[in-house]
Amino acid sequence: MNxxxxxxxxxxxxxxxxxxxxxxxxxVYFARLAPGSRRTMRGALATVAAICVPDADPAPDPEAxxxxxxxxxxxxxVRAVLAERFKYTTVNKTLSALxxxxxxxxxxxxxxxxxxxxxxAVRAVKGSSAAAATGRSLARGELRALxxxxxxxxxxxxxxxxxxxxxxxxxxxxxxxGYGCGLRRDELASLAVGDLDLVQRRVVVRGKGNKERxxxxxxxxxxxxxxxxxxxxxxxxxxxxxxxLLSPLYKETPLFVRxxxxxxxxxxxxxxxxxxxxxxLKTRAAxxxxxxxxxxxxxxxxxxxxxxxxxxxxxxxxxxxHASPTTTAGYDRRGERAKEQAASRLDVPYDG
Length: 352
Hints:
Blueprint: H1 25-31, H2 35-52, H3 72-85, H4 88-107, H5 113-120, H6 140-150, H7 166-180, H8 185-189, E1 196-197, E2 202-206, E3 212-216, H9 219-232, H10 248-251, H11 274-288, H12 295-308, H13 313-320, H14 325-329, H15 334-344
Helix pairs in contact: 1-4, 2-4, 3-4, 3-5, 4-5, 6-7, 6-11, 7-9, 7-12, 12-13
């Protein structure tokens, strides 16, 4: 298909860069997203804007783009261009961002109802991926190697005996909690000490759309967290994890904070960022000799392991904080293993 066949109808180009009074729909849309999603959807809308105004230099800013001018013909043409350039998963994520910003334009009174509904009705692109069911899951040995790498004694400075650093304890707890509770990287980064209930062994998680869920902390993750909290609170939390944590002094205290070069925590620092969580896992994977993985792979492994252990799909969905059971089902590895087991029973009559 040639480029002219994929061109997008003129989108009131004269309005690009011209701001109407009040907030841009993209600004409102980004404001209601979690930080991690905000980065992703900003990139998606930037792609749409660049498709609509391909000759713009510089490329249009999503927050200065006339989303209210979108019509059904524009949405369909953008979908066709995206389908030519990207995998179906990327296309559908981008279309989701487009629907989101169009809804904000409508709710702000910038689009007529009919125009909004016709443009937002653009269909998703169908597709499937052989790797979608399994993705990158970490084996138990890899998880153990990661935690051992965190807890390997190091010398904080020349001439000092090796010790497990505060940073090492922090990273072990981060890995253990990331896998043991299936948290997104921004959920991990934003945890406060007051979100923990060490008596009931559970954590309150604020996920996408500011939705809260309560997730049980499994034994291994609890022990890693308890040991880290002894360091994080200067010994005020004992081995039994009693609830001095819940005092006003610690309720708003960030759980995971940055550390100095020698491995000591910066006690009064702000919470880690999602990007810092990614960097921690990347560094520890290299030290442990574990194949590179993303923070989301810890979450993928958590959901897959829950289902492998016989958890109901609806329960796994609640624990993971997925809006749709279809999303949870995408982490289910059991179907792939059933195929492998069935295939292994075939008797191929080859005697060579």
